[in-house]
Specification:
alpha/beta; 10 strands; binds orotidine-5'-monophosphate; EC 4.1.1.23
């Protein structure tokens, strides 16, 4: 998918919501556990209930890998279900990969070719040759961690290197990499005050913004400081949407939560573009 197609979808749906699929068998409604593939059945119901309100889905790979072969099969069924039924929706494999070049190439193949995701999250710690193999794929996107939503972000990401915070160095340096137009960046919603600085370095890039909902970040604040001319944001909520209810009405309640976010986004988009 191209960023233009993603932007068109944002305009059409008046939404820049990404629903995170972080499926934990201890948290999903108990009646699903009797089914052959509870993870997929849970995802399918959430996707069917929210697809018109969001522009992206982000399965977090850890939540599938934790269940071994069954989990990986559920991941494959989930991505195929989205691609077959809602092909306009942007898909993010939240895998936070990155390794020496030839290994990164295999990670990229796994998520872009075998599973056919539109994007994958990547950690920048190993530098240029660990990220460029992901960037080589046309119309696929590499979402690199810049400033994360967790407390530990302050351990390294904001340390000064040559008088500049490390996350700023990461953003700046990555712009010189081959095919850097295929980069997007993760910036946590819990750090809204940093978005102004981020936008000075990457004014046009899409930012994946986790941390609203369960982690307490504010959608309005992120939009105030982080939005660009083309919105340029994908705001993720996982637990706040998918675990809105633990009863048989879980999909309905997930829709209600997604709708609340979409309505807030619709107001912001309409105001910004005066539509
Ligand atoms: O890359 C991510 O998606 C990510 C980066 C980050 O800085 N913080 C963060 O929470 N995430 C992911 O975003 C999701 C947030 O989930 P909730 O807090 O339940 O909305 C989880 O899948 C996290 O792994």
């Amino acid at each position: 998918m191209t960023t233009e197609q993603l932007y068109n979808q944002i305009q059409e749906k008046k939404s820049f919501l990404c629903v995170g699929l972080d499926v934990d068998l201890n948290k999903i409604p108990k009646h699903l556990l009797a089914l052959e593939d509870p993870i997929f059945e849970f995802n399918k119901a959430i996707i069917d209930a929210t697809h018109d309100l969001c522009v992206a889905y982000k399965p977090n790979i850890a939540f599938f890998e934790a269940y071994g072969m069954k989990g990986w099969l559920a991941l494959q069924k989930t991505i195929n279900y989205i691609n077959d039924n809602y092909p306009n929706i942007f898909t993010i494999a939240d895998a936070k990969r990155g390794d020496i070049g030839n290994t990164s190439s295999m990670y990229a193949k796994a998520f872009f070719e075998d599973l056919n995701f539109d994007s994958v999250t990547v950690a920048p710690y190993m530098g240029k040759d660990s990220v460029e193999p992901f960037l080589a794929f046309e119309n696929k996107h590499t979402i690199m961690l810049a400033l994360t939503s967790n407390e530990g972000a302050f351990d390294f990401q904001t340390l000064l290197v040559d008088g500049k915070e490390l996350y700023k160095q990461v953003l700046e340096t990555s712009k010189s990499w081959k095919n850097s137009e295929n980069l997007m960046y993760v910036v946590g919603a819990t750090k809204a005050e940093y978005f102004t600085e981020v936008r000075k370095i990457v004014p046009d890039s899409f930012l994946l913004v986790p941390g609203v909902g369960a982690q307490g970040g504010s959608l309005a604040e992120v939009c105030k400081y982080g939005m660009n001319d083309k919105v340029g944001l994908l705001i993720n909520s996982s637990r706040g949407i998918i675990y809105a209810s633990t009863g048989t009405d879980y999909a309905e309640k997930a829709r209600e939560e997604a709708l609340k976010m979409q309505q807030e986004m619709s107001g912001i988009v309409s105001l910004k573009f005066k539509v």
